[in-house]
Design goal:
Shape: globular
Number of helices: 13
Radius of gyration: 21 Å
Structural class: alpha/beta
Strand order of the largest sheet: 3-2-1-4-5-6-7
Oligomer: single chain
Helix content: 40-55%
Order of helices and strands: EHEEHEHEHEHEEHEHEHEHEHEHHH
């Protein structure tokens, strides 16, 4: 089939990584895939398979008519069977469907793990647009229930399909330090403040002086980042924290790390958690989105409540104090991710959507 994957950017984020992963596996399956990036290119372009065609449009705003004309011509010549739109790119896809009147299937992929907390007024554009959706894919149970209640789509056309990771070989790198990895963009919802406070407890209350924390994710050079750096200095843990920004070679980060942590206040189904699994890392996650379910409700990792640095520190310390058992836990988690969250399972559900 001829499939367009549509996303705003290729910066390192969960939705963006899924777009790249989906495009790559669809090409492997023999589909013709065009990846359309409406706003800007990004670091993930290097992960796109050679057989995936990419168009970057450099859209300036929603009302950028020149760029919209470009995408109309691209779609007209490509003649897709499916346009699969992720997050806010759906609105241009709806306009394309109206103007071209092609009989392509329009799939909306919702990655926002907190849709129900947004006011109904702000959700109205999505609700009204959904009358033209053929199918909806969501990444957690809350989104599934919200979509069934609010979107104008047949209930049997709303699918809860898990994200999946797609990485190259990971080689372990030994270190004298115990490395804690946080793969998350520097945003309030990821709550890195919770994590650095937990790190301070580990260092100064529990006496773990051989630890280091890596914060790897897009930095927005905003007030949140400024305040985070200020708090790191205030907690006197600057020597224990490294902020890397966006990371392209995630495999290297996973290879040098001992523990994976997500300290978010809300999530959908974080791709980074699945990547921790492929890296064989023991994990500590906050009980948000699908995080607890991904780790078997505590069977393959430790779940703690959000916004509680004391309990987060206790959980990390348990893994540090029992490193051999923690490594075994990480290996069990790896097997679980491969079996339950692999690309083959995603493709089975995806083919049901595009062929029915």
């Amino acid at each position: 089939m001829r499939i367009i994957q549509f996303i705003d950017s290729l910066d390192a984020g969960g939705a963006e990584r899924m777009v790249v992963n989906i495009s790559n596996v669809l090409v492997e399956e023999g589909h013709k895939v065009l990846l359309v990036v409406s706003r800007k290119n990004g670091i993930l372009i290097e992960q796109v398979a050679p057989n995936v065609n990419v168009e970057v449009l450099n859209k300036k705003s929603f009302w950028d008519l020149h760029t919209f004309w470009k995408i109309l011509k691209i779609v007209f010549h490509f003649r897709p069977d499916v346009i699969h739109s992720h997050s806010s790119s759906i609105y241009w896809s709806v306009l394309i469907k109206i103007l071209l009147n092609f009989k392509f299937k329009l799939i909306y992929h919702e990655h926002n793990g907190n849709r129900s907390s947004i006011s109904m007024l702000k959700n109205l554009p999505l609700v009204f647009s959904s009358i033209l959706f053929n199918s909806v894919i969501v990444v957690n149970e809350n989104l599934y229930q919200w979509s069934r209640c609010n979107l104008i789509v047949k209930k049997d056309k709303i699918y809860f399909i898990n994200n999946f990771p797609l990485l190259k070989k990971i080689s372990k790198i030994s270190s004298k330090k115990i490395t804690i990895l946080s793969l998350a963009n520097l945003r309030p919802v990821k709550d890195q403040f919770n994590l650095i406070k937990a790190l301070s407890i580990l260092v100064y209350e529990y006496g773990f002086k051989n630890v280091e924390l890596i914060l790897a994710g897009k930095a927005y050079n905003d007030l949140f980042q400024h305040n985070l750096k200020a708090e790191i200095l205030n907690l006197n843990i600057a020597n224990y924290v490294t902020i890397y920004g966006q990371v392209n070679k995630i495999e290297e980060m996973l290879g040098r790390s001992d523990i994976g942590v997500l300290s978010s206040v809300y999530e959908g189904l974080p791709v980074s958690l699945l990547e921790y699994g492929l890296g064989g890392l023991p994990v500590v996650v906050t009980d948000v989105g699908q995080c607890s379910e991904v780790i078997g409700n505590g069977k393959y990792g430790i779940v703690v409540p959000p916004k509680n640095p004391q309990l987060l520190a206790q959980a990390i310390s348990r893994l540090i104090l029992n490193l051999d058992a923690s490594k075994e836990l990480g290996l069990q988690f790896k097997k679980h991710v491969i079996n339950e969250y692999g690309p083959k399972k995603f493709l089975r559900s995806y083919h049901e959507i595009i062929f029915n």
